[in-house]
Design a protein that fits this description.
Elongation Factor Tu (Ef-tu), domain 3, alpha/beta, about 270 residues
Length: about 270
């Protein structure tokens, strides 16, 4: 059990950006798995700590990832940020014109990697900079109000360069009334998609499959729960609402109480 907890986790298809990165997240997984298997065979956990030697001029190694510290994050527009990374000493990336790098990190507990072309000069010493665009959507859907949300969700997940964070809150009477469970579960595997369920006629989560319990609430979607969900977002989101007239009116009122302006909402 101890060794299994140290075994590298195989990436899901949604974690690969499909850009032909070197190393691809699957390449890294294969190398880490081979390292784990060697360590396990020899019962020597110190072998898991082996690191590739880094060159003195801090050039990037195409076969492995190198850790750099973020020294500055500057917000340029509502959803665009400039990240400055530190390089040791006066070293530089030494990239060719138009060449990109692959950044890897943890988002919502999921390992994600994306390709970026630095905006800093190619000969910049001691640092490099990249631009990242992060929008935020909150979708509030009741029953069949889920329908107009799905094409938007799929357009985001189908676009490798779209880094919009999405939180979908689906309101249904019971667990059995949730539409399109397999599709929703598949969408929830993407690094930038969160899906919550609110079940108005369920009194307990005990009978639900374990994979649903953590992101499901019983009762109604009320003002307090709306505030909790908004506070869990990275920034104030743009909100899409679709349901009955009563649902739409309630959500609009709750959002206003939570500090979301009318021009930051759209009601289908």
């Amino acid at each position: 059990d101890d060794w299994l907890s140290l075994k590298p986790q195989e990436p899901s298809p949604s974690q690969c950006c499909g850009s032909g990165c070197k190393p691809c997240i699957y390449d890294v997984y294969e190398k880490e798995l081979a390292q784990w298997e060697r360590a396990k065979a020899k019962q020597d956990k110190s072998l898991l700590m082996e690191k590739k030697e880094q060159s003195n001029n801090s050039e990037l190694n195409p076969d492995t990832f190198t850790a750099f510290s973020i020294s500055l994050v500057e917000q340029l527009t509502e959803d665009t940020y400039q990240y400055k990374f530190e390089l040791p000493g006066n070293s530089s990336l030494r990239l060719s014109l138009g060449q990109h790098i692959v950044l890897r990190g943890m988002v919502n507990g999921l390992e994600v990697q994306r390709a970026y072309t630095p905006i800093s000069p190619g000969n910049a010493e001691g640092y490099f900079e990249v631009l990242m665009k992060h929008g935020e959507l909150l979708m509030l859907a009741s029953g069949t109000g889920l329908a107009p949300m799905l094409p938007i969700l799929q357009s985001i997940t189908d676009d490798e360069e779209d880094e919009t964070f999405v939180t979908l809150v689906g309101c249904f009477r019971t667990f059995d009334k949730i539409y399109l469970k397999p599709l929703l579960q598949d969408l929830a595997r993407y690094w930038n998609i969160r899906i919550f369920y609110v079940l108005s006629q369920e009194t307990s989560l005990e009978k639900l499959p374990w994979s649903y319990r953590e992101n499901t609430y019983t009762g109604r979607l009320d003002e307090d729960l709306i505030k909790t969900i908004i506070n869990s977002c990275r920034r104030k989101p743009f909100v899409l609402i679709c349901g009955s007239s009563a649902f739409n009116e309630d959500m609009t009122r709750y959002l206003k109480a939570a500090g979301i302006e009318e021009n930051s909402c759209f009601v289908f």
